[in-house]
Amino acid sequence: MSTLTAFLAMGGYAAFVWPAYGVAAAVLGGLTAHSWRRYRASRRALTAIEQ
Amino acid sequence: MRYKGTLGGGGFLKAMLSRFANPARFMRASAAALPWCAGFSAAAIAVGVVLALFVAPADYQQGEAVRIMYVHVPAAWLALSVYLFVAAASAVALVWRHPLAEIAARAAAPIGAAFTFVCLTSGSLWGRPMWGTWWVWDARLTSVLVLFFLYLGYIALVNAFDNPDRGGRAGSVLALVGVVNLPIIKFSVDWWNTLHQPASVLRLGGPTIATSMLVPLLVMAAGFYGLFATLLFLRMRTAVNEKKAMALRLNGAALRPARTSTGGRDTSVPAAGR
Amino acid sequence: MAAFLGLFRRDFGLALRQGGDTGLVLGFFVLVVVLFAFGVGPEAETLRRIGAGIIWVAALLAALLSLDRLFQPDYEDGGLDLMALSGLPLEFGVLAKTAAHWAATGLPLTAISPLLALAVDLDPATLPLLVLGLLIGTPALSLIGSVAAALTLGARRQGVLLSLLVLPLYVPPLIFGAGAVAIGADASTARANLLLLGALTLAALALAPWACAAALRQALE
Prior knowledge:
The complex is a heterotrimer.
Chain A: H1 2-9, H2 14-50
Chain B: H1 11-19, H2 23-55, H3 69-96, H4 101-131, H5 139-158, H6 164-196, H7 211-255
Helix pairs in contact in B: 2-7, 3-4, 3-6, 3-7, 4-5, 4-6, 4-7, 5-6
Chain C: H1 2-18, H2 20-40, H3 44-65, H4 72-77, H5 79-85, H6 90-104, H7 106-119, H8 127-151, H9 158-181, H10 187-220
């Protein structure tokens, strides 16, 4: 348990390291999700029209 | 479509450009490539994060905060690379009128902006504990900030016109103007800084980066580049689909007269079948 | 040559006769400097330290104001199409219009800058450097601005978009222009900054009309 808390504390820099990774995950993940959703919507619209 | 050798050499590049000038062929190729790109980037990023957080050593000067580097530096590489891609695609669009070049540039820009944002925020979070400030106006940071504004300006410009083609063309010119401006910005801020304060130099465990730090860095970079390719293909496919849908809609509207209300049925789309 | 001068005279005459542009630009220039003085506080020391920067930023913003009217009226009434179809290469037409824009905005800004320098308590010895810097730098502002104006022709929210586009492009002239007059800048520093500013203007002179004409052709397609 102490190693987990030590890991999460990041040598005292936790307030900086975790937000950095968090922002990267949120931004890149958000972009991926958005792009994927738009792609699915475009495919649906296209098959709807082609019929 | 044939591309003459105006730039000399680059036979492979010209062949690739010619080959994928046909949107249908691009769609087939990207459909095949997409799962591989997605799989590779997911794996590389996962491995990279594990290496960065668990395996890589803490820096003798910076401690655990150096782990931010494994997000910040690859993001910076991508931020710049994607902009060069946008500029190159814009040049191809303007000079050779390659049908997919504009689509590629417009698809890539938001990805580049996202990486630039990640670079700026992670850099700021890295700088605070290291140098005591959230921001400093040195040449590199300022250039990346300007790069971010260039991305935003490009995205705003291409979306600011009712006619999407006009937006795409204006954006292409802007992308090329920006690529000329970027080195000028870097130079002028460098100049500006040398007169006022010495540039701060970052040392990562010595003059050359250790292998134990280089490997996670490269893995993360590979993952980010893979993510770029994945998102690029995804967004390009979306754009091609949307264009096709728009063209079909317009064709259908032209061939059939407008219908009066039919109580619930969607009349904006031509009826199925004939 | 006659066509070039004719176009220049026409645009410059329009700007003068309508009066709005020059007056607006000068008024805005004065307003920004005065507002900064109020915002920063009356302490002469603080004001003097940032005075050069304030004047340059104010000049930049004022030059930005009239940019959206550089091509828009001609675009709307067809004058731009005539210019593109005429015998004069579009690049020269752009140059003529941009020169007229500078004569009606950048030049008056440079002329009244000594007065505003007094308002921010700038060292009188640096006044010639300020005027020279503005004289060299404001053509670059007009040239770079013309490219952005051409790119945003017919766009929604052109004014806001224009500002977003020129912001990155105006940073180098700002750095060198304000740097020449900054507090603590000795003679050699000032000279170097002015020379770099001159290089920027010359580069803008060579590249901007070409980029601007390309953008105009896209708009007229």
